[in-house]
Amino acid sequence: MSDADRPAAPGRRNVLRAALAASAANLAPPFILSARGEQPVRIGLANPLTGTYAAVGKNELAGCELAISQINAKGGILGRQVELLSEDSTSGDAGTAVQKSRKLIERDKVDFLLGNVNSALGLAMAQVSNEKGILHIVPGGHTDAITGATCHWNVFRVCNSTQMEANAAAQQLVEKAGRKWYYITPDYAYGHTLQAALEQAAVKVGASKVGADLSPLGTTDFSSYLIKAQAANPDVILFLIQGDDMVNALKQAVQFGLDKRTHLAGAQQELESLEGLPPEARIGAWVFEWYWKQPGVPHVAEFVEAIRKKTGKVPTARTWFGFVSTWSCALAAAAAKSLDAVKMAKALSGMKMPPEVGLVPDQAFYRAEDHQFIASLFVGTAQAGGSDPEDLFNVTRVARGVDVAGRVEDSPCKLVWPS
Amino acid sequence: MLQLVLFNVFNGLIVGAFYALMALGLSLILNLSGVINFAHGGFLALGAYIAYSLMPLVGFWGALLVAPLLTAVLGLAVERVLIRRVYGRDPLYSLLLTFGLAYILEDLARYIWGAQSVPYPIPEALARPLSTQFFFLTGYRLFMVALVALAVAALFFVLGRTRLGMRIRAGTLDLETVSALGVNVRVLRNLNFGLGIYLAGLAGVLAAGMLGLQPTIGTSLIMPSFVAIVVGGLGSLPGTLLGGLLIGVASGLATVFMPSASEAIIYVMMGLVLLVRPRGLLGEEGRLK
After folding, report:
1. DSSP state string for A274-316
2. Does residue A317 carry a pLDDT above 80?
3. Which of A171, A419, B50, B248 is most buried, by the most CB atoms less than 10 A from its CB?
């Protein structure tokens, strides 16, 4: 066997060189001069990466990552670079979400906490972040309580409350679908509050409930629900379920031909769900919390382009939630000129978002009294395909967040600040 | 009201037929090898995704034919490399192994095909209801029930009339004696596992046409199948079939009266069966060691 046949051995000299290079790299000063050996600012994200909400969780993560790279390109937070630590909270296990949040706060010493898609997990995390006094932003958990009955001084929420979604959706449902509503509602916090909010909104627009059924989260077969709903002869069947449940239910309803006998619609709809449906099932009147086609609204096109470059797909409302949440951390620190959670929370209360972060037609801001983000909601109908294969929603009206958010005096939220 | 109940009984039979298909595969493996295959749902998802990837090349019918076979081949390989090692050990080993495998398969699907649901188109002709009155009776669902019936008939034929089937049945009763009589038990168990996974793959392809295709598609369907086995009786394939149909009907009826209990009802049923008739409806006494 000649030397040429032998696989190249690392060789003593090469190993030594590599070791030397590695140690030199460790000794080399940090790339960012302003950092002066300081630790980077850390943002901790505990969000679903597995289970039912994996798809939306991953989109929120993509939004966070884009924001991080933008923030770092602009000099970081208070002159320090920013680093994102992402943990899988699972889709439905509050214990894991709490444990991951504690790990991020106690061991990784994050300065900000983000999460969660699942309302129940978001509520559990808020308890931890409040106890630890960490600024916490909930990108996409909708249940009212987060900025309502159990609001905290340190917790802010970007996505809409279920009440806002219901108020934005109600008028269109009456116009496009009719007045007799049948609800198919997911049996947990989000579904209960959304149905209650819709029932309240229905009174104002003259609609009534002809029936309602609770479906356990993760129901796959909706045929028996659809049979029962159809028997009540409603003008519209409202699908309040989300994620995979929404895909399963709508697909079955259209195969049953129910779209030709009654209307199929609801309040919240997401691009992730519509993309998972066959074209003939992309139907109905819905509300999107953010949409990537906003002609004339500044900076939206750049945002869409940046996400397309990063992920190969257009941003969804989830991507936007993650993006706004992460930028909010940087803006809060910059305004407070400090990483002190109380100072940052005070600065973020009532803060108006710059247009390149807000990315909606209306002036977006955090309501000071309950820390709810108020932006725009996109009312319209699902479509099989528009000018672009990813254009699956036809926006007919933009509802202003301030108009659908309800009066702050009616909110059960009473913020208690640390003395 | 009566109509609603009748509709739901009928509909429940359709849904139950599907559970039965999955449960039969599980039951086959459990009976011969004593392995509770938690990864069955993972194989189901894999079968569905393989069909999804093949469809542009071979069409709906081609995918329906080929995907379960490919899944079965994968099952044979997994049995050969992993499952085989835990035969005859404490059931905890196989439980842990297949439990972990279930997570790996689910994440594999997520890694390859993405976390988001993908659309799985079915032929136009099957995608509509056959009558306006019985709108839940679509061409696809009828086709599915027919296929399940065919698969069950074929399975019982194989088990009842062929040499392989005879050996599987004999092995189920007394593996040591079968082995002593010169039957290669390793090959027998391998083929049996493959047969079970074939049924999982078939169930996956069928489910994808009816439900959204997402990595968790198998996870949500696996528990009803376990319940079907327990209700029907461990060790009895006809029992498994009956169990599947029963829980389908029970779940459908629960939706009429108390929808939020439609999931819990099957576990209540299982509890009742275990209390009153622990061996299951058609199970033989003393089968469970």
Report:
1. HHHS-GGG--SEEEES--S--TT-TTHHHHHHHHHHHHSS---
2. yes
3. B248
